[in-house]
């Protein structure tokens, strides 16, 4: 059984290189009996001339296109040979047997096809081994997702219309639509480094973010009415996130409609009629 780990990176400084290297090292140390394939999808187009070199066992791919979260993950997914694929940020620290815990849940619960590890690394006394659900940042941790590769083929890979924001939300809705169960595995421990821990790299990351902002083509005058509310003030300050917010609701329905559809979809899942979510959603 092989696990393919797709890691997105942006290697432009020694600090960012060290962060990604620590991520890879902890991954190797965490699982001694798992056949690991590591695929690094690198956003720095000048990586090959940068002088930074990752270990030979890491397959580094440098796409010609500009960064797009889902597109870059899909590039890695299509290269992956494992039965399971992990989609990961590069600011992670993997703890011992993190994937073995997920694999144990998958073996004992055949209908669960998508998983997230717990970021609560100090919480060792958990009530349940895993929790089913689709709530973003609760059940679905976008910084580390593990899924059967054949499921990704079935649902059509990840939607590349999203630049970065609302990618987790789109993934959650896609799983729910296709009646694919997702679980947060409390016994699987992966630490997502806090921003304060990587603040030395923030300036370089901010430069990359500015470039993403500049690439967004969005006509503010044509925004749908549901955007122009008091609670959405923060969106108007970030054109990139706003663009993805509009794309998300254009795809799945405006906030009020989506709320009602989700209520129906959740009831259908409870009644074991989740297969009807393809119609509802």
Automatic annotation (TrEMBL):
Source domain of life: Bacteria
Its EC number(s): 2.4.-.-
GO MF terms, alphabetically ordered: glycosyltransferase activity
Keywords (A to Z) from UniProt: Glycosyltransferase, Transferase
InterPro entries in alphabetical order: Glyco_trans_2-like, Nucleotide-diphossugar_trans
Signal peptide region: none
Keyword Transferase belongs to the record: yes
Enzyme class, UniProt record, top EC level: transferase
Residue span, Glycosyltransferase 2-like domain: 4-105
Database matches in SUPFAM superfamilies: Nucleotide-diphospho-sugar transferases (SSF53448)
Keyword Transferase: yes
Protein family membership: Belongs to the glycosyltransferase 2 family.
Protein name listed in UniProt: Glycosyltransferase
Taxonomic classification: Bacteria, Pseudomonadati, Bacteroidota, Flavobacteriia, Flavobacteriales
């Amino acid at each position: 059984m092989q696990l393919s780990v797709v890691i997105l990176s942006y290697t432009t400084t020694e600090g960012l290189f060290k962060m990604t290297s620590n991520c890879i090292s902890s991954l190797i140390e965490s699982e001694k009996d798992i056949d690991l394939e590591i695929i690094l999808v690198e956003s720095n187009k000048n990586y090959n001339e940068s002088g930074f070199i990752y270990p030979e066992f890491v397959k580094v791919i440098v796409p010609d296109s500009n960064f797009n979260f889902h597109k870059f993950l899909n590039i890695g997914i299509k290269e992956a040979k494992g039965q399971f694929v992990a989609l990961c940020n590069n600011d992670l620290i993997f703890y011992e047997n993190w994937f073995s815990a997920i694999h144990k849940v998958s073996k004992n619960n055949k209908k669960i096809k998508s998983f997230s590890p717990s970021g609560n690394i100090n919480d060792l006394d958990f009530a349940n081994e895993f929790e089913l659900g689709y709530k973003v940042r609760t059940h679905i941790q976008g910084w580390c997702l593990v899924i059967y590769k054949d499921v990704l083929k079935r649902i059509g890979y990840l939607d590349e219309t999203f630049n970065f924001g609302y990618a987790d939300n789109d993934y959650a809705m896609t799983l729910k639509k296709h009646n694919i169960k997702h679980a947060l595995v409390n016994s699987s421990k992966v630490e997502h480094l806090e921003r304060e821990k990587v603040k030395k790299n923030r300036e370089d990351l901010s430069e990359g973010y500015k470039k993403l902002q500049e690439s967004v083509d969005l006509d503010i005058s044509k925004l749908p009415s549901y955007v122009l509310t008091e609670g959405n003030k923060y969106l108007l300050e970030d054109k990139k996130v706003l663009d993805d917010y509009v794309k998300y609701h254009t795809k799945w329905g405006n906030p009020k409609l989506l709320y009602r559809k989700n209520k129906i979809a959740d009831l259908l899942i409870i009644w074991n009629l989740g297969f009807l979510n393809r119609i509802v959603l």
